[in-house]
Fold this sequence. Notes:
The protein folds into two domains: 10-194 and 235-260, NAD(P)-binding Rossmann-like Domain (Rossmann fold), CATH 3.40.50; 195-233, no CATH class. The protein has helices at residues 19-30, 42-54, 69-83, 106-131, 159-182, 199-210, 217-227, 236-247; strands at 10-14, 34-39, 59-63, 88-91, 141-146, 186-193, 258-261. Strands 3-2-1-4-5-6-7 form a seven-stranded parallel β-sheet, sandwiched between helices. Strand 4, helix 4 and strand 5 (141-146) form a beta-alpha-beta unit. The chain has eight helices and seven strands, in the order E-H-E-H-E-H-E-H-E-H-E-H-H-H-E. By secondary structure, it is an alpha/beta fold. Helix 1 (19-30) crosses helix 8 (236-247), helix 3 (69-83) packs parallel to helix 4 (106-131) and helix 4 runs parallel beside helix 5.
Amino acid sequence: MTSYDLSGRIALVTGAAQGLGAGMASALAAAGASVAVADINTDLGQETADNLRAAGAKAEFVHLDVRQESDWETAVTSVVGALGGLDIVVNNAGIEITELLVDFDPRAASDLLAINVLGTALGIKHAFRAMRPGGPAGVGGAVVNIASVAATIAFPGISLYSASKSAIDRLTRVAAAESGKLGYGVRVNCIYPGLTPTAMGNKLAVETAGLGLFESPEAAAGAVAELTPLGRLGQIDDMADAVVFLASDAAKFITGAGLPVDGGMGM
């Protein structure tokens, strides 16, 4: 059986300063990868990289606003130079806005789409350019995009967020087709995380209750658990383990796939 050993691999994780991203960076490091913690938050990102190094991993922080192409160019060049290559890109950075469609703010929606969709598309673009034959890394690799169970269900109050995560699903599949057709040697997959009690997940519970969709944040979280056959919310390590699997050789014949990590909620 092929293991999940990532020794010798170099990974870049966006939005890795905290929450799911930090958990994914930690799990990749625990599997043996060198990790670039990429985030717009320099203080928290540096702290996360410091914690990984203190635990024995090889890690660096890179400042990255995923909406900015120049940031991607600088970040990839920095990672290849500092860590010696690039084999794995995890497009995790994203934001969530809770609002009813009848009240949505186009400016806030534009920011959400720029980070969640454009940011992921730029991540795929620069992963391909680095990993394909002739690129500065040039040995192929794996891209893992972070979609959401919101791409597979109709949950009230998060319409634009759901649309952005559905877009990530489609980007994943088209990117996998292009990579295969053009011989890039890069597998592209995504996961659909279920609701996880991170800062973002807790914010969603509070705000959906504030819109009158649930009686309280606790009722919102309880409603999600009730819709989930496994009967609980997700945990960070549930999502991180799935990313490690898709990045590893255990998934070497998997591309263009969306892996639900939602306790069955979206089935």
